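Exercise: predict the fold of this chain.
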Amino acid sequence: MASRDRPVGTVTRGTTAPNRLRRCDRWIAGPQGWRLRRSPTPPVVVDLGYGASPVTAVELHDRLRRVRPDVQVVGIEIEPARVRDAAPLEREGLTFRRGGFEVPLDGGARPTVVRAFNVLRQYAEGDVPAAWARVQERLAPDGILVDGTCDEIGRRAAWVTVERDGPVSLTLSLRLGGLQRPSDIAERLPKSLIHRNVPGEPVHGFLTDLDRAWERSAASSSWGARQRFLATVEQLRDTWPLRGGPARWRLGEVTVDWAAVAPLALSP
């Protein structure tokens, strides 16, 4: 087990920006909010690898304390200077510390959510299972790891939800205004999938079907991109194991079971 003096992982580029992770935050506070509310003690949420600026951790705390006022958000970074720079922003319910995938927390606390965005993107695909496993060991019974990637201003985001027993779903979240086709998200797929968007792989099939449904729903664009996306996702309900419903689809978000899109080499 790694100590705090030897964090597990490597330093990321650290690129970040205000409001960049709003789509994932909205999902954690929404469909996943029950995990926070169910915790018998103040739930711990980790922003793992928050980058050169702690702004995403600060925003996460602001958003989640509306769901659970006593939530404890911990920003964890492997680069000591980033932790020092973040320290002045600490407040009740928000702290920063050095660490990596070992997720060091006081008193052996187990996090309810570990959000790792744009972190594993800089690793090799083969490194992903071990990184997931390291975090899974630390999760609370109802806990999740959210391994995601997004563009520089958060208009396109994708993330895999990983529970203690393994990955359970893939979520795509898109800004619908100006969207040309849903598969534009391909370049922002998480590391476990980004190299699998090729014919024959399940995730390629899912994105292809999304694009075809988007084209068939063109007439709905008369009522706006939101209605077009609703019609698009509705067409896939019978052929893909989707989670959630229209309330999430209206946000440009769609979630599918991991088993349906998992890389063939990693499928059970």
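Check your answer against the key: The chain has two domains: 1-164, 179-262.
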